[in-house]
Amino acid sequence: xxxxxxxxxxxxxxxxxxxxxxRAGPAALTVTLAIxxxxxxxxxxxxxxxxxxxxxxxxxxxxxxxxxxxxWAEPDWSRARETIVLDVRAPRVLLGAVAGAxxxxxxxxxxxxxxxxxxxxxxxxxxxxxxLGAVAVIVFGVTLFGPVSLSAAAxxxxxxxxxxxxxxxxxxxxxxxxRLVLSGxxxxxxxxxxxxxxxxxxxxxxxxxxxxxxxxxxxxxxxWGTLWLPGAALILGIAxxxxxxxxxxxxxxxxxxxxxxxLDVPRFRxxxxxxxxxxxxxLVAACGPIGFVGLMxxxxxxxxxxxxxxRVLPTAALGGAVFLIWADIAARVVAAPMEIPVGVLxxxxxxxxxxxxMRRDARRTTDRGxx
Length: 371
Known about the structure:
By secondary structure, the protein is mainly α. The protein has helices at 26-49, 57-67, 79-113, 126-140, 149-169, 177-201, 205-214, 228-243, 245-251, 255-260, 265-287, 293-305, 309-333, 342-370. Helix content is 70%, strand content 0%. It has one domain (26-366): Orthogonal Bundle (ABC transporter involved in vitamin B12 uptake, BtuC). The chain has 14 helices and no strands.
């Protein structure tokens, strides 16, 4: 099972390794985005309505529009329900949408940059690096950058882990899927061991327990005051990646072909690594490491809109937002009144998907070898 970085003929159409070239016309793309936008609104409404206290969808919209200043109907809800919707569930739903969208676009970009269909922040150890950086700030009480110290440390950890995995997996200008995954697993194991050691040796017992729960990934505990940073990181990430969509498409044809067409591959890849580490670090600082969203959504989206990143990135963002909102709803209700960490549910979905991808690529490699 291999996914070479170089070797594609310059004249061939750019497409992700292991993916057929499917093209969606403008009309099909518009319909897909419209459907996902409607699903996002429906999902957000469900996220605000479903929980230990059920709130009818009509009341949800009434509460939201009333808070926005549109008094089109006489309030018929209690103050308690308004607090639940606006102060408890709304920040959580928004964080789920932001984190799902961010992880999906980061996974999409990583798969293009490394030309590997198995690339995503969690599997490559990037989330583990971000977690270690964030936990180090909590354990040692570092506040060098004020309120953004946690995100800054998570960014530094994510970038360091990504560079380490990439440098370890790249040999002779090539990266294989097996080497990439093994490098990611090894780096993640080491970083997780260091993180566990920090938690075991800290004298802040209560904080250690809270941080341990956070490392499983979850959207609880968020408030309006902390949402701006993940939101800003998502907007920055999507804007830059959309602006660089053509270069991402060039990379899919191989480094040699991209260089022939005028792309400075090492510099471009380094800049993108910094950007993706920043987005991942901020998201991990906000909700903990949530795995496999960045693996599954890009593959699902490409089946509908093809491999062009001008189409894949916005579609993956909407799909990731919808997926993580529903994953969080399931985390709240499946074992109610106990809440399951949302990272556990995404792993239960993503693990089998990862195994299916490996088996599919192995079959294709075998077929090519026998051809």
